[in-house]
Amino acid sequence: MCGIVGLWGGPGDKNERQALAADMAKTLAHRGPDHQIAWAADHESIALGHARLSVIDLSTSANQPFFSEDGRYALVYNGELYNYRSLRSELRAQGRAFHTESDTEVIAKACEAWGVSRAVRRFTGMFAFALWDSQEKRLTLARDRLGIKPLYFGVARGVFLFASELKPFFRHPAFVGRISEQALAAYFRYCYVPAPFSIFEGVHKLEPGWLLYVDAEQRLSREQYWNAFALASARPPSTTRSIGEFADAFERIASTVVEEHLVADVPLGAFLSGGIDSSLVVALAQRASTQPVRTFSIGFKDARFDEAPYAKAVAAHLGCQHTEAYVDYSETLGLVAELSSFYDEPFADSSQIPMLMLSRLTRRHVTVALSGDGGDELFAGYDRYYWMARLQRAQSRIPARMLRWLGGMPRERIMRWGLRALATVGMKRSRAIVASDSVAHLARMLARRDDYRYLYQTTPMSVATLRDAPILRCEAEPRLWLDDEQIHRRFTDRIEWMQFIDLMMYLPDDILQKVDRASMAASLEARVPLLDHRLVEFSWTVPRKLKFDHGVGKVLLRKVLSRYLPRSLIDRPKQGFSVPLASWLTRDLRGWAESLMVPELLNRDDLLLPERCRELWRNFVTGQAGHTQSAAWALLMFLDWRRRYGY
Length: 647
Hints:
Helices cover 45% and strands 15% of the residues. It is an alpha+beta fold.
């Protein structure tokens, strides 16, 4: 795992460009602590930089930039290619000679032999790379199919820049960051900036499954080599297989994938929360291993957030070598103040905190860790899918006239009506409030059942933050995947539609960004076997009832996991990877939070409404107006980012 940077154009000679690329690469030393190297062309104004974490072929001969034997191509690459051995054998049979044992050389020679467009379709793995062709005077950027590895690009005053993160951009004198109002509005809606946007105008994320070509005149063209929508549309769910046959097929593919992910020349382990996804990955890894798999988890003293006992029980049953650590609150206080240094774009998924803690714990023992991310999106594990099921069930049972009546009724009136009704049957007031609020929200969902953006942004347990409390002067959000009418027509089942939107937005821009930044902050390589494209494509052939049925998600994964674990370790409520953030913010972290609510950050430009920001914070601290924890956290993370980077 590594970090890559590059620049093309601008003033200066070769030595100046090389020094600048080296400076940019050093900002990614956490991604690649073993080597940071830069190169500049003799006769072109291009320079490439690389920060290496050595995982496959630890020798210096595998350092980057990597050059073809004739000097035509230069490659910088971040990721892992899991089928590199079979591709190397094929290329050798075609007469290509190899001088290292690295997957980097396989990528370089595959692109040389087959061209980038054909080669990338053959790659199985996670990657972001840049290939310079000195003969054609063309730079090609590529990103893996699911967006596991990040890649930013943009043009600043005539200089084309790219990097794994935004920090290298800050070091180039041509870059003047201007915050995008649309991207900021999207951030405050989702707690992340969705691709292809970045927080800055003129800087973009290369979307998953795409190639970007840059020519000598800095003209950009793109090619999509993996189209998730087209592939999902071409693979209708099978209706002839039984659940046992689907389980056999999934287990067969997943076993191959996990075994490929175990290849490394450094110590390897796995994250283990005790949930279905990580438990399944660890179970398959343990079956493929000759030694006990090293597993890692963290715990909290607050039982509401503590999954450590489940992880320990799963590890014991599977025969793993398990390590756990309980979080010290004093460590948390220091870590929160560091977050914006690792997430150099505003990012406010609070599970970033335990993810970073887990990564640091794991890195003390291994260099590579398997993760269970992806199962929720592919096999309908999130609670918000339950709400989509409720919506569809109610819509099929409630007459249209009543739907209109419920939708027009104020939320407060529905809650008062519900509280009175539930009180008559003896339900405790605390439970009655929750139940009544659920009924009120379902009524509003029913009234706007054809408004897809509303459904996605307001489904309980969804990813939206600010709903009725605007704090921005400009709230114009960009068009995103959830606005695409073609996708609405293709996925008539609301659960499947939401799964697909999560796959295209929430997964790459929240979940995978969180895992990448947290693991790389600890110089740890995180691998995600469940997001191998073969498993993703297989998931599209699985009927919805084997994903979500009668209020239960991940039906098929539960079936497969039951072959390795007893039901007592499988059938429990989904807990999620979270922390007691609300209590931390109102107590231990309150001083840090209020140090951000200052005029120099709130009044810096015309982006925020300062008094509304202060009001949001006051209401959160006092528990008024229903402001959510995520809204307060999103504001604090943005302000902390501003303070650190000066934008």
